[in-house]
Amino acid sequence: LALCGHPVQVMCYSEYLATRDEKDFKEFYDYFGIRWNITYQTFEQASGEYFNTVAGNAKKYVHHCIGLPKAAKSYVNVRTNPILLIDEVDVFFDEKLYGKNRGIGSFPSVPGLNKIQIKMWELVQQKSLNIRQSIDSFINNNSDATIAEFRMLMNKSGQYSLLISTKDQSLIKHYSNFDIFSSHLDDMVSTAETVYKMKYDDSYLNQFQLNQSGNITVKTDFGSYAENTYHGYYNTFIYFRLKKINFEEGKSNYGYLTFHLGSISYAKLPENFPLILGVSGTLTTLSNYEKKVVKDHYNITDLSVMPSFFGGSNLKFNETQDFSCLNSVNEWMNAIFGRINMMVYARRSVLVVFDTDLKINAFKQQFAAQLDRLNVLTVDTDPADKERFINDAGVSRTITLATREMGRGVDYKSSVAVESNGGVHVIQTFFSVDVKEETQIKGRTARKDNRG
Predict the structure, then answer these.
(1) Region 329-442: CATH code
(2) Helices 357-367/329-345 angle, 10° precision
(3) Which residues form the signal peptide (predicted)?
């Protein structure tokens, strides 16, 4: 398509896969002089870019109303009638994408708010009463220059109109800065109190973590941890809770207001393209509903199923004998460990796929001392380590603990020694609701003409 002069936009659910493929094919694209005709994006990146084309002035308007400097201009790479190619297209129909919206927001830094939020957290930790009143007093009686600037912004005269969406309708409402700031301060105090009361094993709390740079990140639906994902003011106060001391302002940490500007439906993204193409290794397992969406929503009527160049699969799997359901977490972990030991003794390598990184950590904590060549592979593994762990996954007696996101699209290779002993052994530790995921995980072994 690119050789014929068409711009091509390749979309994928995974930033790792998109980046990997772009890098792998760069030399080929450069050789034919078509590099600039081809763009790789995730669905999230594409939705953000599309929002800027249709509502690029929204951030500028919000900043202007509040009295803050103009928001940085967003540059959109305009392509004329690009052709859409969706990689791993069946994932697009997953509940994490099709039928879901991506919220778009503006998060302007406000002078003095960083110190106000730190004060809130101190008061919450002290279990103070009437925290909201204490914050008002802190703002009104503080001589700090930045808090004085915050106070001046909060009391700025004038009103402006904002479109507020409810479940049933959208309404135009008139606000002053005092109204907006007061409402957000209320929300901050409430969030801070909620975060302080969270137990350490709270599932919501465990969606957040500090990255290597010390910034707060949030787990996305596809397993990666992102700095640019915001959950109201939870980012701020969970950051305080996790960091404890030496807070660093910036990024998504603290010192900003949150404004919801709108939502983009992932299902609407392909509609902007004159031609839609998609590829997947599990096309034949699309459900009847998914087939109906492909045909009726996107008007795609042509499907082609290509046989493998290497012929039939050498995968060994018996649905009855190779399936286990255990009564307790302890039995489940011991069964996994026992199977790993059996394969290591047979000089094979083992890929163990877990539902979440939290379950990997629990398993590793209990059995790491008894396993020699053990690697952990998640979406957020350092890129250099990620490639090394992927290459090592097929080395004899190597155990790789991977999250479910690494069970699709990743090319695990096996050594000659492992192949001679039966190939890479895959253990899926959870039950897939969608058969396509199970098919993909099985496909991490017995690849090409190998065994497993």
Answers:
(1) 3.40.50.300
(2) 70
(3) none
